[in-house]
């Protein structure tokens, strides 16, 4: 991609604008402690930065829909992680947990345009085991391992 003058500046401005939506929404991390909220928020911010960089040379009317799509996917994934951690120790049915996990996986695929690698899907089982043992830290680690992937600039 040939970067036009001001592209990085525009990307930074767009990233800041959309990142505020994550930082201001406490419902994305209401069930998490600080040691969990920080990496999840950093994960979300990294994806917004990538989206902003990918739109650096686009006019605003073309960039906004992509940024909105990616920010929506990031928020839905973060909500899912927060909801699943909040479910630990609660008498929820398997269907609620399964539906939330499915929502995370679908939105992750929407965000990344690729299915999760089979090796990463083992983290679903790791989460379920940690949830049964009411181990919030291990459950969170499993969810982060499920959604994290090497983040590189376009």
Summarize the biggest pleated sheet: none
Share of residues in strands: under 5%
Structural class: mainly alpha
Topology as a string of helices (H) and strands (E): HHHHHH
The first-to-last residue Cα distance is 8 Å
Which key terms come to mind for this protein?
single chain, mainly alpha, 0% strand, elongated
Quick structural summary:
The chain is mostly helical and about 150 residues long. It has helices spanning about 5-25, 35-55, 60-85, 95-110, 120-130, 135-145. The protein has one domain.
Descriptive overview:
The protein is mainly α. It has one domain. It contains six helices and no strands. The protein has helices at 7-24, 34-54, 60-86, 94-112, 118-132, 136-147. Helix 2 (34-54) runs antiparallel to helix 3 (60-86), helix 3 (60-86) packs antiparallel against helix 4 and helix 5 packs antiparallel against helix 6. It is elongated and about 50 Å long. It starts with 6 loop residues before the first helix and ends in a 7-residue tail after the last helix. The mean pLDDT is 89.
Describe the secondary-structure layout.
Blueprint lengths: L6 H18 L9 H21 L5 H27 L7 H19 L5 H15 L3 H12 L7
Helix pairs in contact: 1-2, 1-3, 2-3, 3-4, 5-6
């Amino acid at each position: 991609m040939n970067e036009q003058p001001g592209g990085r500046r525009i990307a930074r401005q767009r990233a800041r604008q959309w990142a505020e939506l994550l930082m201001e929404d406490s419902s994305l991390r209401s069930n998490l402690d600080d040691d969990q909220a920080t990496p999840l928020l950093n994960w979300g911010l990294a994806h917004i930065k990538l989206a902003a960089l990918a739109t650096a040379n686009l006019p605003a009317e073309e960039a906004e829909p992509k940024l909105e799509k990616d920010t929506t996917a990031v928020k839905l994934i973060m909500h899912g992680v927060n909801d699943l951690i909040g479910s630990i120790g609660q008498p929820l049915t398997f269907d609620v947990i399964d539906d939330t996990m499915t929502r995370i996986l679908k939105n992750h695929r929407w965000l990344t345009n690729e299915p999760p690698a089979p090796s990463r899907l083992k983290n679903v089982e790791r989460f379920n085991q940690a949830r049964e043992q009411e181990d919030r830290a291990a459950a969170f680690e499993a969810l982060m391992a499920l959604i994290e992937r090497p983040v590189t600039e376009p």
